[in-house]
Write a structure and sequence with these properties.
Length: 291
């Protein structure tokens, strides 16, 4: 029997990428228009009963000064905010890099947010990158080596605007998924970069992270932005949803409300974001598939 009362309702925004810049028609990006689009999304979300509103990274295109107008608009939300950075959020002066997570009110670069029976894992998918840490930082040097190795293998996502995660974060993800399995909780993971299906926008070694998530009977979804065209994949009952970039197109917006029911998730998109109805398989069924 279908349950009509959602267990969790989330507002979703990806890639506003605001900046006080002229449009880039070649990339179809209209940076200044994102403020009006954000206002429209906030008004829509405030008329609804939501448990949280999530921004999946790239609040700005570049420049520390551009955070203020975006955060001022998001401060009008009635629901709690869950913000995480994308690659463009680190295109600021070097002495500001270490302050990005605090500016977004993040308790730590990756962390868990718990609701009754459902956990959100907020991931730091910019952890190993050429932009989130200073050049002499160990993470920056590791990013150089990983990118060089990926290029040598001919990886389609071997770009300096992509990034990866450290082994310690992968261990933390595995631990939190196992804890959720033990307690019978569902898990939705949030990252900036897509990890499935493969593309040139994929997180470095995203395939490994996708396999880890798909192997857990507690995981039901991974939500991301970064690839502005959006996209979708499924593996072992886990739904990988790439939300469309808000900054794209001059007039058409892109945001959504995601409702989690016992047996499904429903994405009600606005503007360029499509509607989706995504089945949630019972944990017992997921466990049998993994045997």
């Amino acid at each position: 029997m279908t349950t009509e009362i959602p267990r969790l309702r989330l507002g979703i925004i990806a890639d506003p990428q605001y900046a006080d810049l002229d449009p880039d028609p070649q990339l179809n990006r209209y940076f200044r228009r994102s403020l009006d689009k954000l206002r429209e999304a906030v008004e829509h979300f405030n008329a609804d009963a939501l448990d949280a509103v999530i921004v999946l990274g790239d609040l700005i295109d570049r420049g520390w000064e551009n955070f203020a107008p975006v955060l001022d608009i998001l401060a009008r939300l009635k629901a709690p905010r869950i913000l995480l950075p994308g690659n463009h959020d680190f295109l600021v002066a070097a002495d500001r890099l270490a302050s990005v997570h605090a500016l977004l009110d993040m308790p730590s670069p990756y962390h868990e947010v718990r609701f009754p029976g459902i956990r959100l894992l907020v991931l730091d998918t910019c952890e190993i990158s050429l932009f989130a840490a200073p050049e002499k930082d160990a993470r920056h040097m590791e990013a150089q080596m990983r990118l060089a190795a990926l290029k040598a293998r001919g990886g389609p996502n071997a770009h300096d605007w992509n990034a990866g995660i450290a082994d310690r974060q992968a261990i933390w993800i595995a631990d939190r998924l196992a804890a959720a399995e033990a307690e019978g909780d569902r898990v939705i993971l949030l990252g900036h970069y897509p990890i499935h299906p493969p593309s040139d926008h994929l997180l470095w070694d995203g395939e490994e992270l996708a396999r880890l998530i798909a192997s857990s009977s507690s995981a039901i979804a991974y939500l991301c932005g970064h690839h502005h065209a959006g996209g979708y994949g499924e593996e072992n009952g886990v739904h990988f949803v790439n939300f469309c970039g808000m900054v794209d197109t001059e007039e058409t917006n892109a945001f959504a409300v995601l409702s989690v029911f016992e047996d499904r998730m429903e994405v009600v998109g606005q503007g360029r974001e499509p509607h989706r109805r995504l089945r949630i398989a019972p944990s017992t069924e997921r466990s049998r598939r993994l045997c």
